[in-house]
Amino acid sequence: MSAFYVAAGDGRFASTEWTRGPWSPDHQHAGPPAALLARAIERAGGIEGAHLGRGTFEILRPVPIAPLDVVAEVVRPGRRVELVEARMRAGDETLMLARAWRLRRAEMELPVADSAPPPAPPDAGDRRVQFPGMPEVGWHRAMDIRFLDGAFDRPGPAVAWFRMRGELVEGEAPSPLDNLFCAADAGNGISGVLDFRRHGFVNTDLTVHLHRAPAGAWTCLDAVTSLSDGGVGLAESALHDEHGPIGRALQTLLVTER
Length: 258
Prior knowledge:
Elements: E1 3-9, E2 12-15, H1 31-44, E3 51-59, E4 68-76, E5 81-90, E6 93-103, H2 139-142, E7 143-151, E8 154-164, E9 167-169, H3 176-184, H4 187-190, E10 199-203, E11 205-210, E12 219-227, E13 232-241, E14 244-257
Parallel strand pairs: 1-9
Antiparallel strand pairs: 1-2, 2-4, 3-6, 3-11, 4-5, 5-6, 7-8, 8-12, 10-14, 11-14, 12-13, 13-14
Helix pairs in contact: 1-3
């Protein structure tokens, strides 16, 4: 595996088969597109070295494994806080929208608070990833996944570490933020309540709140899914790096029978 995308200039990217997701062989997992939009947001921002405090990604349509155009702009500028918007298109069709608040960083002394310890390290996780019905080439193989609890084929809450095996964009070293967004959309996948082979539980969005910037190559999701008998649900993931908690991810779910 080399990269999820290859830059083609002027905000255009060729998608590789490693972006393939679980719901269709022709569509991407939402993690890599979210990471690509977050990359554009970081580059468009006007506050140097700002912290991405909250990013929301609206998944308007399935993202095809095809050439993509990404544009981003600051829609609310400021010296301390700014709102940046990014769009992803394929041809004339808008596929995803993203908005993120970026906040200036400033060193300050804070009271020492008790912090939850990080989960067991990635080396303690199960490297055997079983994803029923998936081809060999796709997001689930492009990520190094280590389950501490649960599994893709085991219903219920789960805890797993994620690390990109390659690059988000060819020729660019992956950043901790790249890895986080490639992983954060997996909360509903690892904590599914229903059998993946019989039901779909596709997310219409992804919102990530970060109180601290991620560090290192690994992101851990401690995920749980809640469903209603009306066919909707919510996946919630506590996010960690190897130093401790960094934030939360939420996904609204549409539940269907296959």
